[in-house]
Specification:
This protein is 58% helix and 0% strand. The protein is an all-alpha fold.
C-alpha cells in the first residue's frame, strides 16, 4: 500500500467472552423445489418447456459408434490385406504364411467384442469381409457366435448385410469340411460352454430370422442376404447364384480382390462348393418354405413377383422349393404364382384351364420375366405343357420379338418336345430376319441347340439362318455364311462394311465401347458353335464356308479370341465326321507359318495337331520343316516347333512315329461339364498324400541316422502358425508312432546336451592387459 494511504490508529481488541456467548447463526437448509406443471410455472403462459427426452439411437449405428483409434487400426489392416491379396507370393522367402497368420490373429484379437460395431461401420465392414476369407473354421465359428441374437438387425443394416452375405458365402467351405468330419480341436470348459459348429450356427440363424422372414424379403438390404442364406441351405443354380446387382458388383470390384491371403489355400473354394449339404439344412429350408406359405396368401405372393426387391429373393425360394420336391404339393408357392395351374395339371395332366391375364402380363414384364424363367425351367412337365399351350403356342413369333419375353421363350425352348419345336419353327417362318435386326439371337440359338439335341427340325433351323441373314442360294453368299454370322450382318454388309462408331461411343472411355466397336460378336460365335452340333448334312455348310474363305479372312478368324472358338468347336463337336475334320486340317498345311506366328493362332495350330492321326501329324510336321528356323525365332511359333520335336523326325522318323502313337489323343473339353464323381472319405487322404509327394519340387535326399535323431528329438525350428482343421484322432495318430533309436546314438546326444556352453570361444583381451 502506498505511504499516503497509510493511517495510524489503535486496534480494537476482540472480546473473547462476548464472542463465546454470542450464538452462531443457524444455516438454513434450502427448501425443496417442487416441480409444477408447465402452465403453473413462472413466465408467460405461451412458453412451455419441452419434456426431457432420452437420447435417441442412431439408426446408422444401432450397436454404438466405433472408437476412432479402432477405426484407424482396421484401416491399416485393410491396407495390408489388400497389399497381400494384390501381390500374390509376396512375403518371407522361407515361410510367407508365418507373418500373415500372426497378423490376422492379432486383428482377430482386436476385433473381439467389437464385431457388431465393426459390421455396421461403413469403412470397417469392408475390412470384416476381407478378413472372413482368411479366417479358419474356428475363427468363423467364434465370429458367427458373437453376433447371435442380432442377425435380424444386421440383415436390415446397409453395411452389415454385406458382411452377413459374405459370411454365408465363405461358410460353404466350413460346412463341407464339417460334413466330412474335419473339425478343429477346441478346448471346452464348463464356464464358457460349448462352441457350436458352423452347421448348427447356420440353422440357429435361420430359426432366429424365421418369424419375420416374410418382412425381410421386402427389405432392400436384407433381401440379398436371405438369398445367400437359402443358397447355403440348399444349393441353387449358377444363374440364380449371382447375388449382387451390377451396381453392387462394380462397387465391390473397386475394393480389390476378396480371397485368402495364404498361399496354400488357393483354389480350395471351388472344390468345396461341389460337396453336398447336411440333411439338417434341407429340413431347415423346408421349415422356411412352410412358414412363408402360412404367413402369406396367394395375392401377397403374386404381388412379390413384379417387385424389384422381392422378386430376386422369390426366385431363390422357388429354386429351393423345387429342389426339395415341394412344387407339386397343393397350394405351393409356384401353384399360387401360376394361379392354380400346378395343382390342376397335377390332378389331371390333360386339363387346360382358361388362360390368366396375370401370367400373360408377367411374361412381358421386365422384372417378372426373370422369375418366369425359373418357373418355366423348374415346373413339372404337365404344368410346362399347359403353359406352352396357353401362353406360348400361336404367340411364339410375337413373344420372340419382345424385348423381355424373348428370354422366357428361349428358356422354354430348352425343354420343349419335338412337336412343339416344329410348331415354333413354323410360326417363326417369315420373322427370322426381324429377330436378327433386333439382336434377339438367343432365341435362335436355343432353337438350334434343341434341334441338335432332339434331332428334329434341323433343316428348318438352317433355312431360318439363311432367311435371317438374307443369304441366297448363290455360292458367293454361301461362302460368306461364317463372316455373316460372326458379324451379325448380311452378305451385302460384309462386302461393304460401314465404319461407324456406336451411338454412345466415347473415345476416352475404356470399357464397353471397345466390345461394341469389335465387328466380331460373341452371340454370332455362339450361334456358329451351336450349328456345328447339328447332324452331318446340316453342319457341313459351316465347315464348307470356313474352307472356302480366302487366307486373309481365315487368319482373321483364327487369330481372334472370340471367333477362334468356332474352329475349336469343329474338332470338339461329335456330330462333325472325322473326314470333314481331316479335310479342314489339310487346308492349313501350306499356311501353317502364318497361323502359328500369333498368340491365338499357335493355340489353334496345337488343336489341329492334337486332333490329327499319326499320318496327318507327320504331314503337319514335314510342312513346318522348311520354316523351322524362322518359327524358332518367333515369340509364339517356337513353342509349337518345340512340341513337334522336328529333330527326332529328321534323324529317326520311326521313333518319332512310335512316340506319336504312344501319345494319347487330347481329351476334348465338353461344352457342358459333367459333375465330378463322389469321392470316398477313406481313400481321399491317401490320394492327397500321394499328390503332395509328386508336387514337391525339392529333391528328397535320404537322411542318415544322426539327422533323423536330431530332427526327432529337437524338432523342426521353422514352424508355421497355421491352425490345422484335421480331426483330433488323426492328429494324435502320427504322434503315437515313435522311432527306435540306437542306445549309442542316444548316449552321444546326451553327452552333447550336457557339455558346458561357455567353453566354445576365446575371451577378448582387454586393452593394456599383459599377455
Amino acid at each position: 500500500m502506498p505511504k499516503e494511504f497509510r493511517k495510524r490508529g489503535k486496534r480494537t481488541k476482540k472480546n473473547a467472552t462476548h464472542d463465546a456467548a454470542e450464538p452462531k447463526p443457524m444455516q438454513q437448509e434450502p427448501e425443496p423445489v417442487l416441480e409444477q406443471p408447465p402452465h403453473l410455472q413462472e413466465g408467460p403462459s405461451w412458453i412451455v418447456q419441452a419434456p426431457q427426452q432420452e437420447a435417441e439411437m442412431n439408426p446408422s449405428a444401432p450397436f454404438g459408434e466405433l472408437d476412432p483409434d479402432v477405426k484407424a487400426y482396421f484401416r491399416n489392416v485393410d491396407t495390408q490385406l489388400r497389399d497381400w491379396q494384390d501381390n500374390e507370393g509376396a512375403g518371407a522367402a522361407s515361410e510367407p504364411n508365418e507373418e500373415r497368420r500372426m497378423f490376422v490373429e492379432a486383428a482377430l484379437r482386436e476385433m473381439s467384442e467389437k464385431e457388431l460395431q465393426l459390421a455396421t461401420d461403413p469403412e470397417s465392414s469392408v475390412v470384416l469381409e476381407r478378413l472372413l476369407y482368411s479366417m479358419d473354421d474356428f475363427a468363423r465359428r467364434v465370429f458367427m457366435d458373437s453376433m447371435s441374437g442380432s442377425y435380424e438387425a444386421l440383415f436390415k443394416n446397409r453395411f452389415a448385410s454385406h458382411v452377413c452375405q459374405t459370411l454365408f458365402e465363405v461358410a460353404v467351405d466350413s460346412v463341407a469340411r464339417e460334413a466330412r468330419g474335419d473339425l478343429p480341436a477346441v478346448k471346452t470348459s464348463s464356464d464358457e460352454g460349448e462352441l457350436r459348429t458352423v452347421t448348427q450356427l447356420t440353422i440357429d440363424i435361420a430359426e432366429e430370422v424365421l418369424p419375420n422372414l416374410h418382412e425381410l424379403i421386402l427389405n432392400p438390404f436384407a433381401s440379398h442376404v436371405i438369398r445367400a442364406l437359402f443358397n447355403l441351405l440348399c444349393p441353387l443354380q449358377s444363374t440364380v447364384r449371382d447375388m449382387r446387382s451390377k451396381k453392387s458388383a462394380q462397387w465391390k470390384a473397386k475394393q480389390g480382390q476378396m480371397k485368402s491371403v495364404y498361399a496354400d489355400e488357393k483354389g480350395k473354394a471351388k472344390e468345396e462348393v461341389r460337396l453336398g449339404r447336411p440333411e439338417d439344412f434341407a429340413e431347415c429350408a423346408r421349415r422356411c418354405i412352410l412358414h412363408l406359405r402360412e404367413t402369406m396368401d396367394g395375392n401377397e405372393v403374386r404381388a412379390l413377383v413384379s417387385n424389384k426387391i422381392a422378386s430376386p429373393c422369390l426366385q431363390a425360394i422357388l429354386e429351393v422349393e423345387a429342389n426339395l420336391g415341394m412344387t407339386e404339393e397343393v397350394d405351393s408357392l409356384m401353384d399360387r404364382i401360376t394361379v392354380g395351374l400346378v395343382s390342376a395339371t397335377t390332378q389331371n395332366p390333360n386339363s387346360r384351364p382358361a388362360a390368366s391375364d396375370y401370367l400373360g402380363l408377367l411374361i412381358r414384364d421386365q422384372t417378372a420375366s426373370h422369375l418366369l424363367e425359373i418357373l418355366v425351367s423348374r415346373c413339372p412337365q404337365p404344368t410346362f405343357d399347359a403353359l406352352w399351350d396357353l401362353y406360348v403356342n400361336r404367340q411364339f413369333a410375337k413373344l420372340a420379338c419382345h424385348p423381355a419375353a424373348q428370354f422366357v421363350v428361349a428358356k422354354a425352348v430348352e425343354r420343349c418336345s419335338a412337336a412343339q419345336l416344329e410348331n415354333a419353327l413354323k410360326e417363326l417362318k417369315g420373322n427370322f430376319r426381324r429377330l436378327i435386326e433386333m439382336s434377339h439371337v438367343n432365341v435362335l440359338r436355343a432353337l438350334v441347340e434343341r434341334a441338335a439335341m432332339l434331332r428334329a427340325g434341323e433343316a428348318s433351323c438352317v433355312e431360318g439362318i439363311y432367311e435371317g441373314f438374307a443369304i441366297s442360294e448363290s455360292e458367293e453368299d454361301r461362302t460368306l455364311l461364317v463372316p455373316c454370322l460372326l458379324m451379325l450382318e448380311t452378305p451385302q454388309g460384309v462386302r461393304n462394311p460401314v465404319e461407324r462408331p456406336p451411338t454412345n461411343y466415347n473415345p476416352r472411355r475404356k470399357g464397353g465401347n471397345e466390345k461394341d466397336a469389335d465387328p466380331i460378336k460373341i452371340q454370332g460365335a455362339l450361334l456358329l458353335q451351336s450349328l456345328l452340333r447339328l447332324s452331318d448334312p446340316h453342319n457341313r455348310v459351316i465347315v464348307d464356308s470356313l474352307k472356302a474363305l480366302p487366307l486373309e479372312e481365315r487368319l482373321k478368324i483364327a487369330h481372334h479370341p472370340t471367333s477362334s472358338r468356332v474352329i475349336d468347336a469343329v474338332f470338339e463337336s461329335p456330330a462333325v465326321s472325322a473326314k470333314v475334320k481331316r479335310e479342314y486340317t489339310l487346308t492349313w498345311l501350306e499356311d501353317l507359318p502364318a497361323l502359328v506366328d500369333d498368340r491365338i493362332g499357335s493355340r489353334v495350330a496345337e488343336r489341329l495337331f492334337a486332333s490329327a492321326d499319326t499320318y496327318l501329324k507327320e504331314k503337319i510336321a514335314r510342312a513346318v520343316l522348311p520354316h523351322e528356323s524362322a518359327l524358332a525365332g518367333s515369340f509364339y511359333g517356337k513353342f509349337f516347333v518345340r512340341k513337334l520335336n522336328l529333330m527326332l523326325l529328321k534323324r529317326k522318323p520311326d521313333e518319332w512315329r512310335n512316340a506319336q502313337l504312344s501319345h494319347k489323343p487330347q481329351a476334348l473339353t465338353p461344352s457342358i461339364p459333367a459333375p465330378p464323381p463322389a469321392k470316398a472319405q477313406a481313400p481321399a487322404a491317401s490320394t492327397e498324400a500321394k499328390e503332395t509327394v509328386k508336387k514337391s519340387k525339392k529333391r528328397q535326399r535320404p537322411e542318415n541316422e544322426i539327422d533323423e535323431l536330431f530332427s526327432t528329438s529337437l524338432g523342426k525350428r521353422t514352424k508355421t502358425a497355421r491352425i490345422e482343421t484335421a480331426d483330433v484322432e488323426m492328429e494324435t495318430a502320427p504322434k503315437a508312432a515313435t522311432l527306435t533309436v540306437d542306445k549309442t546314438l542316444s548316449a552321444v546326444l546326451g553327452a552333447i546336451q550336457q557339455a558346458p556352453k561357455g567353453d566354445g570361444g576365446r575371451k577378448k583381451k582387454k586393452k593394456g592387459a599383459r599377455s
